[in-house]
Amino acid sequence: DAGVIQSPRHEVTEMGQEVTLRCKLISGHNSLFWYRQTMMRGLELLIYFNNNVPIDDSGMPEDRFSAKMPNASFSTLKIQPSEPRDSAVYFCASSLGADSNQPQHFGDGTRLSIL
Amino acid sequence: AQKVTQAQTEISVVEKEDVTLDCVYETRDTTYYLFWYKQPPSGELVFLIRRNSFDEQNEISGRYSWNFQKSTSSFNFTITASQVVDSAVYFCALRQPGTGNQFYFGTGTSLTVIP
């Protein structure tokens, strides 16, 4: 079975450019989480969705960040304009159902470098 | 308030030693779920185990064992006869129905097993 698929795996771009990170959920999963991981701040939850609806976006650092679920199996995280401090590994995770007993399954992450 | 505390930032052990990673959580819910994840040097986050709040039975899986104690709000993870491949960052996490199914991750414990 395919796991959570993230693309691209690596992204290097210059500051000011728009960055789009993509995530495909595991089939049947309906909760979607975006995390950011840095050495300084560890693993931070940015936003999560249940059934395509954003439930909590309090972790989104600024208006430059936006996330969408255009359909039940796919999500994007956009940064516009990007800044060097946005450099991090971005993880997407999905879980089955709205029950709290379900673990999250993570993608391999996107390593983002903003020059 | 920090819901999941992993007080040990870094641990180093010599191969074949046993090692315990501590996790203390905070919740007012009577129903909640605890998880452990492993992040090896390759960077992916791997789900290890889930525990329900109403099941305090300890679990063993090969060299891994987990000790869940509600009285002390702890969910500790022990690796017996550690191996170099166990070197990773280990995260403890809490999920509770009362928070819309959000995950709360600890800051992680970096384990280095020295050959």
Description:
The complex is a heterodimer of chains A (115) and B (115). With 115 residues, chain A is mainly beta. In chain A, strands 2, 4, 5, 6, 9, 10 and 11 form a seven-stranded mixed β-sheet that branches. A four-stranded antiparallel β-sheet of chain A has the order 1-3-8-7, with no helix packed on it. The model of chain A has no long low-confidence stretch (mean pLDDT 92). Chain A contains no helices and eleven strands. Chain B is mostly beta strands. Helices cover 0% and strands 50% of the residues of chain B. Chain B contains no helices and twelve strands. In chain B, strand 7 and strand 8 form a beta hairpin. Chain B is globular and about 45 Å long. The N and C termini of chain B lie far apart (38 Å). The chains are: A mainly beta (115), B mainly beta (115). The interface between A and B is medium-sized, with 24 and 24 residues.
Helices and strands in order:
The complex is a heterodimer of chains A (115) and B (115).
Chain A: E1 5-7, E2 10-13, E3 19-24, E4 31-38, E5 42-50, E6 53-56, E7 65-71, E8 74-79, E9 88-95, E10 105-106, E11 110-114
Parallel strand pairs in A: 2-11
Antiparallel strand pairs in A: 1-3, 3-8, 4-5, 4-9, 5-6, 7-8, 9-10, 9-11
Chain B: E1 4-5, E2 10-14, E3 19-21, E4 24-25, E5 33-39, E6 46-52, E7 59-61, E8 64-69, E9 74-79, E10 88-95, E11 103-105, E12 109-114
Parallel strand pairs in B: 2-12
Antiparallel strand pairs in B: 1-4, 3-9, 5-6, 5-10, 7-8, 8-9, 10-11, 10-12
Based on the model shown, name its key terms.
heterodimer, A: mainly beta, globular, B: 115 residues, four-stranded antiparallel sheet, 12 strands
